[in-house]
Amino acid sequence: MTGLTRGLAGRTAMVTGGAQGIGAAVAERLCAEGCRVLIYDKSAEHGRAAVDAWLAKGHEVRLAVGDVTDQAAVKAAFADVPDEWERPTLLVNLAAGFVFKGLEATAEEWHAALDPTIVGLSLVTREFVAGLPERGADAAIVNMASISAHIAQSGYLTYNTGKAAVLGFTRCMAQDLAPQGIRVNSVSPGTVWNANNERFHHEALGLDRATAESDPEHGGKFLLKRFADPEEIAAPIAFLLSSGASFITGTDLPVDGGYLAV
Ligand SMILES: NC(=O)c1ccc[n+]([C@@H]2O[C@H](COP(=O)([O-])OP(=O)(O)OC[C@H]3O[C@@H](n4cnc5c(N)ncnc54)[C@H](O)[C@@H]3O)[C@@H](O)[C@H]2O)c1
Questions:
Q1: What percentage of the chain carries pLDDT values higher than 90?
Q2: Residues in domain Ketoreductase (predicted)?
């Protein structure tokens, strides 16, 4: 592949949370770029369905089922990379704790929010880095932040705190891993129309996509007056992993239809 996503063909990528939603779109995009993709997801059901569909298309994909907070399972997933694949040199950290609470959050709810988003992120990144050579792997990591990392939203204390921490994690890791030539960046999407968001808008707000996008409190907050499709997040992630982004590290790329611009 040439152009903005050059240097991805033949590489092995690990995608956490790759069974559904944005992660599945990232996996598909990386497959299309010629990568071999290892999906690490806690949902065996969704992971199996996604991986079977990609295998049927001829893509080189593999599923490891586990939680990002389970250190032994994370280690086993990296150890299970097929012999004929190179070790993963690309990592996309998407798994997160989806807990939306304010100050009423209990200690358990804080753990459910932050353990996957931050502790899991750290465990997966550590295992990934441990398998890399001292230098020269052209390795790259993309972490999933959100517009929620940059703004205040009522009732989102637990989620937004975790996503803001992803920005700090990304900067520190970029500094610490630069001597090995490993680039680390994050992306901050706005609302992405996936199954979860469709369910939430329908059940909690009584809105379908068209009505939600035309509502000033929802789609209307984006300069582009709409939500994103998962593929629109996958494309900039593929770019940040590629050698087209060889001088980009330690930063966050908003992929937000202009939400943070105003
Ligand atoms: N959907 C949006 O509007 C949006 C916007 C900004 C950022 N994000 C972020 O993008 C990422 C993906 O979100 P999505 O909406 O596509 O989610 P999703 O629910 O569609 O998919 C998340 C996947 O992650 C897996 N997962 C969750 N916790 C896990 C864990 N502890 N260990 C292993 N796997 C785990 C789930 O099984 C699922 O397959 C998240 O980090 C989310 O915070 C989403």
A1: 95
A2: 11-196
